[in-house]
Amino acid sequence: MFKVLFVSSFLAFFLICVSVRSAPIPGHLRNTFRSIQAREVFTGGNATYFLQNGVAGACGTVHSDSDFIAAMDQTRYGDSGDVSPLCGKYVKITNILNQKTVTVQVADDCPTCNNENSIDLSQGAFTQIATIDEGEVPITWEYVDSDGSSSTDNSSSGDDTDNGSDSDNGSDDGSNSDSGSGSNDDWSSD
């Protein structure tokens, strides 16, 4: 009798463990796990700034100095004669000296960046993390979604390429509209 009870209890426990282990993870948790797993923070780079001068970047769009955009190192960007799969992707940049962050959209390549982890920012984006007088600051950065949350796509290629023309109008109501200005004060934090 004891043997049957023990085997039955063990079998019940085993079946519960197996069914819990194989239960599907809800979608929102699965995406969270994927984001945490896929997140890669790039180090050893510097942020600088550049003026737009009314000229289209390598991604083919014209921006103002107040737009929150970035030029990626040419090694990472690829052939500057082509529109890179990075165009339109978002990166969150952290100044390691003061921990200020800004989220920007890739719109250009940077042939003068120090290394593949360095990024050239528009003046508007740079002033969110440093002063113009500083000119160059050490950074870390990561790919993120347009809302600044950790991205599950850390690749430098993909079919969801955007030409960088989608951007926020900087309104304070929290809504996103395509005005083409690219300025969005909500993308940065101190």
TrEMBL record:
From the UniProt entry, list the residue stretches annotated as the region Disordered.
Answer: 143-190
**Tree of life domain:** Eukaryota
Locations of Acidic residues compositional bias?
A: 159-171
**Which residue ranges have biased composition labelled Low complexity?**
146-158, 172-190
- Which keywords appear in this protein's UniProt record, sorted alphabetically? Signal
Q: Which InterPro entries match?
A: Expansin_CellWall, RlpA-like_DPBB, RlpA-like_sf
Q: Where is the signal peptide?
A: 1-22
Q: Is Signal tagged as a keyword?
A: yes
Boundaries of every RlpA-like protein double-psi beta-barrel domain copy: 44-140
- Specify one Pfam family: DPBB_1
Gene3D superfamilies given in the database record: RlpA-like domain
Protein's UniProt name? Barwin-like endoglucanase
